[in-house]
């Protein structure tokens, strides 16, 4: 790299911070605004932000490590959306009666993968008719039993058993991946680049 050539890789270190703020803002608006965009616009807008930020990062960093940094960035931004979804307000809670519990066992093919996973789909009778079902990896109540469900009355965030839905795991993963992508960019170019 010559002296006169701009050091674009320094700007790339800012991309993860700016992109994370933009993606968080977009996702937050899509999940909690009084008049959010349609699902198609929300998806296209979010995808454009994630892909656009990754491309800008890839172009600015250059070299072999730009691919890994861009991958860390894209995954970190997707986890940002996940954390925002999980943290989105489920402002209402209802005590619902379980009508039926359907058990679904999924099997994984391949060596070293978990042998099987069981999902429990609880069909519910709730005041007002919503939510009408809840899926979890554990049986929350037997048929005829009661379960307390936290939900978004605007139906934009999936219902969850009350007291669950912690966004800490996704948020921590997002921060870790975004920090890694920032460190890759901030390290500067290799000597041979």
Q: Would you write up a description of this structure?
A:
The protein contains five helices and five strands; from the N terminus they run H-H-H-H-E-E-E-E-E-H. With 193 residues, it is an alpha+beta fold. Helix 2 packs antiparallel against helix 3 (39-61). Mean pLDDT is 84; it is low at 1-5.
C-alpha geometry: elongated
Helix content: 40-55%
Q: How big a fraction of the residues is strand?
A: 15-25%
What profile does the largest beta sheet have?
5 strands, antiparallel
Q: How many alpha or pi helices? A: 5
Pick out the low-confidence regions.
1-5
Question: Averaged pLDDT, please?
Answer: 84
Summary tags:
single chain, 193 residues, alpha+beta, disordered N terminus
Summarize the structure.
The protein is an alpha+beta fold and 193 residues long.
SSE arrangement:
Blueprint (H helix, E strand, L loop, with lengths): L7 H5 L2 H18 L6 H23 L3 H23 L4 E16 L8 E10 L7 E4 L9 E6 L8 E2 L6 H19 L7
Antiparallel strand pairs: 1-2, 1-4, 2-3, 4-5
